[in-house]
Structures are given as structure tokens and as C-alpha cells.
Amino acid sequence: MLAYHLYGALRLPWWGYAAFTFAMVELMFLGVTLYLHRDQSHGGLVLHPVLRHFFRLWLWFCSGTVTREWVAVHRRHHAFADRPGDPHSPVVFGLRRVVLEGYELYIAAARDPKILANYGRGTPDDWLERKLYSRFPKLGISLFVVLQLVAFGVPAVTMLAVQFIAQPFFAAGIINGLGHRVGYRSFEMPNAATNIVPWGLLIGGEELHNNHHAFPSSPRFDVQWWEIDMGWLLICVLRALGLARVGSLAPRPNIVRDRADIDADTVRALFTNRMHVLRDYRRRVIRPVFRELTKQESVGVLARGSAQLLVRHPKLLDERACQQLRELLDRYEVLRTVIEFRDRMQQLWDETSASHGRALEQLRELCTQAEGSSLLALRKFASRLRAYAPTAEHSQHSWVTVNWLDGRRSRESNNQRHSC
Hints:
By secondary structure, this protein is mainly alpha-helical. The chain has helices spanning about 1-5, 15-40, 50-65, 65-80, 90-95, 95-110, 115-120, 125-135, 135-150, 155-175, 210-215, 230-240, 265-270, 275-295, 305-310, 320-330, 335-355, 355-370, 375-385, 390-395, 405-415, and strands at about 45, 200, 230, 245. The protein is elongated, with a radius of gyration of 25 Å.
């Protein structure tokens, strides 16, 4: 009888307890990434109503999460990413506080009625939500604790501790904290989001955080061929079973080698793929030109770390870094040339949304001047710009396709012009 009370109704080997705990944590992460994040927050994924309700119930049951609160806080994060107003940015609050107190920052934002009103629109508001989930957010997690204690007894104490620590540690601490501080950046934007690792396996693909900030409406987080988004793989399975529908995905450049003329389709393709174009420019022009320059200069005159100043988004540079960049551009005309070309491309995209004809004229002038440059890398890149062509999918959409939330963020993230 004593053993029954100590170990509960279900006796498992040690690996059974570990497997059950791991399964509970992963199911929670799937609910967060598929339902809360990709479906409810951004709308790029539409889950079957049965799956939506299952995940809503499960997240309320295992973690006390209320859909409207989570979605509102996350949308607020995108609207003010790494700026005052961001609920949990390490740039604003410091990395240590976000990692150790990320859950507290989330709770503070979730209790703000203005954030809920402005960013919680479109989330479930049915009878169950009003009378149960939102009204009694702690009831589900209380039942969850009681059931595990009855089922597993004393081992459930450790199992529950792991499960309750997992969400605030990985979601609030790792993704919101380290995901804006360490890792690699495929795309330069005015926020500090990074891809922690290229293989998003443990947290359902959320590790590819920089990619998500670049294309927030896309339910697929892997962008480069060697990246893996486990959440997307599951979405493919659900879609094949008729349990999910996918909206617009992140654009993939369509390069047509035999395109010689620059027309309105070229401008549209460059605008659609502007994040890819900037990444390509960094890889094909800025870094090669800088490497060639370092061969001609001593390390003391041109520090190799200066390359980061050239590719980093200007809004992420502090005053000291801005001063170093200004001195670098004043000293080396070749670097000033490549940065000015990048800024003129951004001006082209700004003109695109206002005047298609003017943007086309500017693109032709820009490519002509670049192809007459003494820089081989710049000439090759200008020729490559001519090869961009719209895909059949994007040709059916408008020049700017963003949802109600991401429109503001996208316009801000496109502001790539040098501001130091």
C-alpha cells in the first residue's frame, strides 16, 4: 500500500518516466509553434478546427497558457522588436534578465490591457474561452499536477518540475534571449534576431529565429537548403492528411540566366526577394571587396573585424561603431562605393511602393552605373540583378503582401539605408 502511494497508479522504469516527460514537453512545444505561433499569431498556417481546439485545450491544461495573451505579447514583440516597447528584448532589458526572468516579463506584458486590446485581435472568443480558459487559467494546470501525482506519485515531482521549467527556459530564455544575441544571421534587419542553430529539431524549428523575423508570415522557418525546421516537416504531414492549410511562404529567388532586359517584372522580383538580394550582396560584393582590401593593407590599418560594421544593419550600431564606420568609409573609397550601391538599392525598393515607373528607371540607371564600375564583384552583381524574375506564385500577388501586423514591421525592416 505504501508503494502505491509513493509511486502512484502507474509504475514505469526510469527511462519510461524520462520518455513520458520528454513527450509531454515536446507536445507542449508543438502546440506553441504550430498553434500559437504559426497559426494564431501570424496566420501563415491554418490548422483544422479539431487540431486548433486540441492545442488550445492542451496548452491551457499543461501550462496555463491563454491563447489571446500569448499571441498579443508575441505580436507586440514583432511590432517593437529590440526597441523600447518590446516585451522581452535582451537589447532593452539585458540578456541576463531575459534568460532568468523571461517568464516574468511575459506575464507583465500579458496583463497589460492595452497590449491585449491592440494585439490580441482575431484569437478565439467562444463560450469555452470566455467561461473556462481565460476565466480560470490556473484550473487546467492544477488538474494536470493532480493527475500526474496520482498516476506517478513521487517521481511526478521531478517530472513536473522539468515540464514547468521547459517552456519559460526554452521559449522565454533561449529563443527570446539567446535568439537575439548569439548565433548566425542569414538576413540583416533592424532587430538583433539570430538563428541559434541551423537544425531546428528540439524546439520545433523556433531555433531559426532570424529567418522568422525576416519572413514572419511564412509558416516555414528554414530558408537555406541546409537548414531544417522540424515544425515544417510536421506541417507537411498534417497538410497531406488534410489537417492543415498553408498560406504564403517565404519567397525563393527565381534566377533566369537569359534575361537581358530590365522591365517591371525585374523590379517586382527584386522587391519580393529584397531580403535575399541583400544577403546575396553581402556575400558576393561586400565581403569579397573587403577581403581584397585587407590583402593590400596591414592589419593595424584595416582591422578584419571591420567587416561586421559594413554588413550590420545601421540601427544596430552604437555611436562608437557608427563613428568607426564613418572613418572607414571616409578612408576607403572602394568601401564607400559598395555601401552607397546598397543604399541606392534600398531607395529603389522605397520607390517601388510609391511609383513603379520611377523604380524601373532607377534600376536601369543603377545597373548601368554598376556595370561600368571598376569593381569586378559589383559588375557581376549588377548583371545578376537582371536575371531576377517573378515566380508564377508571386506574380499573382500585389507588390506588397503583408498582414495587418507585419505591414508596419516590414516597412521598418526594409529601411536598410545607412543612418550613422
